[in-house]
Amino acid sequence: MTSLKLPATMKNLDSMISYVLDKAKKFNLCDKKLLYKLRLVCEEVLVNIINYAYQDLNEVGYVEIACDIDTKDKKITLKFIDEGIAFNMLDYEDPDLTLPLSERKAGGLGIYIIKTIMDKIEYHREDGKNTLILIKSIANFIE
Asked: What is the 3-state secondary structure (H, E, C) of 49-83?
């Protein structure tokens, strides 16, 4: 699985998202709704890494992104690796969307969106690295 590794800065956000979308388009995954969902998920993950993963360090960290499209099993796998503080989105409860906005806790909606869009989410931390793996079925978008 090839990957892209760049400094975790907002300046690189578009390049990181384009890496995933360009790869999807190479496999003729051109459905606008699917591409929008992939863009949204990538943006949510990457902005969180950029804004929070390295906030306690005095230097810019890196984020590595890998994208694998499996035409046999009809799935797309996104992998995000960073060396920032440990963060497992699976530990966070979904927000209570039935509450009025004024009564909801701040934050967490992006995580909820990712959980809603993706079919499978895995997280592990090893050797000081966070690895987030997101899997989405593309059976409806590939022949």
From this structure: HHHHHCCCCCCCCEEEEEEEEECCCCEEEEEEEEC
What does the DSSP 8-state code read for residue 142? -
Q: Among 28-32, 49-53, 115-119, which stretch is predicted with the lowest mean pLDDT?
A: 28-32
pLDDT value at residue 18: 97
DSSP letter for 93, please. Answer: P
Query: At 94, which amino acid appears?
Result: D
In DSSP terms, 134 is beta-bridged to 78, 121
> Is CATH 3.40.50.300 what the domain over 3-137 is classified as, yes or no?
no
Domain parsing of the chain, residue ranges: 3-137
Q: With beta carbons less than 8 A apart as the criterion, state whether 75 and 138 touch.
A: yes
